[in-house]
Amino acid sequence: SERLCPHIFIMSSFVFIVKGELHRNCSAVVRPADLNITNNATWCDWAPFGQDNYQTLFGVLDNSFLVAYAIGMFFSGIFGERVPLRYYLSFGMVMSGLFTCLFGLGFYLNIHSLGYYAAIQVMNGLMQTTGWPAVVACVGNWFGKGKRGFIMGVWNSHTSVGNILGSLIAGAFVSSQWGMSFIVPGLIIICTGILCFFFLVEKPEQVNCTPPQHHEGDETESIVNNTSQIDINAYGSITVEPAEVVEDHTEAISFIGALSIPGVVEFSLCLMFAKLVSYTFLYWLPLYISNVAHFEAKAAGDMSTLFDVGGIVGGITAGLVSDYTGGRATTCCVMLLTAAPMLFLYNYIGQRSIGTTVGMLLLCGGLVNGPYALITTAVSADLGTHESLRGNSRALSTVTAIIDGTGSVGAAVGPLLAGVISPTGWNNVFYMLITSDLLACLFLSRLVYKEACGWCRRVPRARG
């Protein structure tokens, strides 16, 4: 049986929940009688976020994390192919938890320096780049291509579960002691990193399990390589010795070599725009709900988790459909095209009632995060075990890092653009998101055409 340490990715940048507490409407807050203040409008804000340019300062924090994550991701995959994944992943999780706790300590140490919080975000972004290439490589080592879309779609729900848990944990403390909104999740990921260090099994061969079939031609080779040695001794008794675990001595793929794998560039560029949409929602949805629907910070954070709940269903659905049809690119393209008008509708009718808000958040979450989940999991694993690699298993981490690193560029740009555009109106922010969805589809057009041609060749022609 497969044994793989569950990795729940809890997003360390909880600023998107705490934003409403760092900059509040102080006129609506009851002021303590013994508090001597000089500014009635900003007395309850956490300096330096009480200034008029607070949205720009929040953008600095967001992009400190996301830019560091995007840059570090391109190097992370290279290290992941050359370092034991168990050590690499455990180190990254413990250090991510440490820096997350340090951010929260700023509340208790009364730190009001933007440089301090930005530096913590940079280091956290770099540490978290160890996570995704490592976990995708581990899961890719355990499961073959046959049902990979569904299996990795279910597995990928841990990202949405992490976002939901992060939002709920942060929301539980945000109104009283926002420092605990960082410290508690930081301690959780440290403990999870320790569990991974002791229990993570990187490959099935390490526990005498049969490796998966990544291609149709792997079946015979797998049987030959894993056949037990049967010996008959002088007394006529039979002894069975398990096959020796063959170590992989192939050279890790280079960065340029990974880029040359067919489909890597197209899916990377598609993910850049798909992730732009997803992360803009992640960072700005609570503030949007708070401003438009007039929810409190905690209620807005709780409501925003519905977007991730929809993402769980969308990721599993995308995996199932792509397994059945064999069209990863077409599945992504159809979902992205459908997401565009749904985003438009959410902006115009999504806040009319609680029922409408819940339904539209679930629907938009599924359509936006479904392609994102499929590309970062099953597609990355498919390309990392592409037949052009001729059995080289040391490409999964690098390919995953290239795809997710390119996507992280969009994740960094999206919240920044939202911060710049939002003062002109939320309608313009949604127009930007819709345009990004359509651009993501455009980059997949060649692969969609290729998949459609493959389906046409498989359809038997009617005889006249």
UniProtKB/TrEMBL annotation:
It is a multi-pass membrane protein. It catalyses: D-glucose 6-phosphate(in) + phosphate(out) = D-glucose 6-phosphate(out) + phosphate(in). GO terms for biological process: phosphate ion transmembrane transport. Gene3D superfamilies: MFS general substrate transporter like domains (1.20.1250.20). GO terms for molecular function: glucose 6-phosphate:phosphate antiporter activity. Pfam families: MFS_1. Keywords: Antiport, Endoplasmic reticulum, Glycoprotein, Membrane, Sugar transport, Transmembrane, Transmembrane helix, Transport. The chain crosses the membrane at residues 56-75, 87-109, 115-143, 155-174, 180-201, 264-285, 329-348, 354-375, 429-449. GO terms for cellular component: endoplasmic reticulum membrane. SUPFAM superfamilies: MFS general substrate transporter (SSF103473). Residues 1-452 form the Major facilitator superfamily (MFS) profile domain. Its main location: endoplasmic reticulum. It is found in: Endoplasmic reticulum membrane. Belongs to the major facilitator superfamily. Organophosphate:Pi antiporter (OPA) (TC 2.A.1.4) family. This is Glucose-6-phosphate exchanger SLC37A2.
